[in-house]
Amino acid sequence: MSIHDTRKENLLALIKRFGTQKAFADKADFPPTYVSQLVTDVRNVGGTTARKIETNLNLPKDWMESPHLDNLDVLTVAENIGTYKTKHDENQPVTVGDIIKIKTILDYAEQAMDETGIEMDEQELCAFAKEMLEMWNNRENPILYPNVLDLLKYREKLKYEYR
């Protein structure tokens, strides 16, 4: 994904958070027509615009250039997982119940990533969610935040050991 794609995705997520383009434009101090041009790709979200959004909305510097979990659709992750292994089935398809579990896993992962400063791209996050889903469905108890945090730290440690 290019930097322009990431900025556009983040812009759309912010607009969604504010409810309307106008509400976002008012809060970010842009004319509504300018925001409309950004949304319809008449204009790109450039560096100057990204910095102004971050400043006016009290977001961290370079927030617009970073992918954020809240932009990642749970159904996209479920689609990427497709099937997974369980005790009883090598190719268990993702079910509606699994989608709820994936949402919980993603929420915990976002919290753990914020706490540790660890970053994952979409592909890594989908693999992580699949691994957590397999663990959850092969045990009697649900996955809790400490389980996600521990696995996230372990995977990060392995990444550095094998470089």
Please give a structural write-up.
- The protein is mainly α and 163 residues long.
- The chain has two domains: 63 residues, 434 Repressor (Amino-terminal Domain) (Orthogonal Bundle), CATH 1.10.260; 93 residues, no CATH class.
- The chain is 64% helix and 2% strand.
- Strands 1-2 form a two-stranded antiparallel ribbon.
- Helix 2 packs across helix 3, helix 5 crosses helix 6 and helix 5 packs across helix 7.
Short characterization:
The protein is mainly α and 163 residues long. It has two domains: 3-65, 434 Repressor (Amino-terminal Domain) (Orthogonal Bundle); 69-161, no CATH class.
Mean pLDDT: 84
Please state the CA-atom Rg, rounded to the nearest Å: 18 Å
* Main sheet specs: 2 strands, antiparallel
Along the chain, the helix and strand elements come as HHHHHEEHHH
Give the terminus-to-terminus CA distance: 24 Å
Instruction: Tell me the strand percentage band.
Output: under 5%
Helix content bin: 55-70%
Domain module count: 2
Figure out the total of helices. Answer: 8
Q: What is the approximate shape?
A: elongated
- Strand order, main sheet: write it out: 1-2
Can you count the beta strands?
Answer: 2
